[in-house]
Amino acid sequence: MPFLGQDWRSPGWNHKIKNLFVGDVCEVAAKKRKKDLLNNNTKSQFFFKEKWIYVQKESTRERHGYCTLGEAFNRLDFSSAIQDIRRFNYVVKLLQLIAKSQLTSLSGAAQKNYFNVLEKIVRKVLEDQYNPRLIKELLEDLSSTLCILIREVGKCVLVGNINIWVCRLETILNWQEQLNNLQIPKQITGGVTLSDLPLHMQNNILYKFSDGWDIINLGQTTPTLHMLSEDRQLWKKLCQFHFAEKQFCRHLILSEKGHVDWKLMYFTLQKYYPKKEQYGDTLQFCRHCSILFWKDSGHPCTANDPDSCFTPVSPQHFIDLFKF
To answer: Which InterPro entries does the protein's record reference (predicted)?
Structure first.
């Protein structure tokens, strides 16, 4: 309001009003820049100095509340983990399990972090063509889950605006199209190739694989590898690695010659039983401290013999830790 005795139409008052308005605009602009900066900084990953988290399942006198799946996802630096080839498949499998059953349990911040990590994974695969089949399976499960959630909106709890979820689904469908059109360039090199290796070395490489599709894909590269990839003994070893003998008996498949068709057995058995999982590196759980952490990052353990307290955590075990 004008001061007593001051005409609000006077030039001095107009100048004050203008300065006041400009000041408000500058303040709003500053707040917006601060918010945008925060969003840009958090787009890649929520930063925490410690790469471990205490798994709290109930309130105690010392600690109140409990740890959620979303908090753990934010704290354990999965954004950096996907850059480590030892952890890549582990993180992808974890994201796939979350997509199937735990997506709605994530907080808004954790959901944002989840999709940011997923975006980095897709970009990495498009750039270096590493394991696109695994990412295709993840996106297929995620798109199916989002279709159900969006279709049944109102019947289930969705954190955030429905338009955000529709936009996420459109992004996933776009990623799927890019991966389906992905062309892996032929490597041109004057050095030693896989075909130049002795037969027994090529065979040994095939025996190192723990996934049937990897064997089939490698077998398609050369006639020699195709011949080696059809070896019955190779598929028998693979079945014995993943499944128990009792499971063989329940789904025994014989060829026309009366021999066990181990290749067909493998793909049949995996429809009924989970395969044994193998990862180069996994999260660890300290039973003494109830702390979840990456082994190379460590955690402040108070046990006399810390290594004896560490347990590898599979992706499913990670999910189970946060089921209350």
So the answer is: F-box-like_dom_sf, FBX25/32
**Are the CB atoms for 57 and 66 separated by under 8 Å?**
yes
**Contacts (Cβ under 8 Å, ≥6 apart) of 99:** 138, 141, 142, 145
pLDDT digits (tens, 9 = 90+) for 17-49: 344 444 444 454 444 444 444 444 444 444 456
Q: Is 286 helix (H, G, I), strand (E, B) or coil?
A: strand
Residue whose C-alpha is closest to residue 113's, from 57, 65, 157, 72? 72
Cα–Cα distance between 160 and 157 in angstroms, integer?
9
Q: Rounded to two decimals, what is the model's pTM?
A: 0.74
C-alpha to C-alpha distance for 279 and 86, rounded to whole angstroms: 7
Q: Write the single-letter amino acid at 324.
A: F
pLDDT per residue over 179-221, tens digit each? 999 887 776 666 778 888 999 999 999 999 989 999 998 999 8
Neighbours of 103 (CB within 10 A): 19
Over the Cα atoms of the chain, what is R_g?
A: 28
d(CA 119, CA 236): 38
First to last CA, the chain: 58
Q: Which two tokens stand for residue 309?
A: 């307290």
C-alpha dist (Å) from residue 314 to 87, 131, 252, 269 = 12, 20, 29, 21
Measured CA distances, 84 to 59, 74, 144 (Å) = 35, 18, 28
Give the mean pLDDT of 2-26. Answer: 46
Decide: 32 and 54 in contact? Cβ < 8 Å: no
d(CA 197, CA 44) in angstroms, rounded, equals 42
Q: How far apart are CA 190 and CA 204, in angstroms?
A: 24
210: amino acid identity, one letter: S
Q: Torsion angle, CA of 107/108/114/119, rounded to 10 degrees?
A: 170
Distance CA 147, CA 141 (A): 10
For the chain, list the strands marked E by DSSP: 52-54, 283-286, 291-294, 310-313
Look at the chain and count its residues: 324
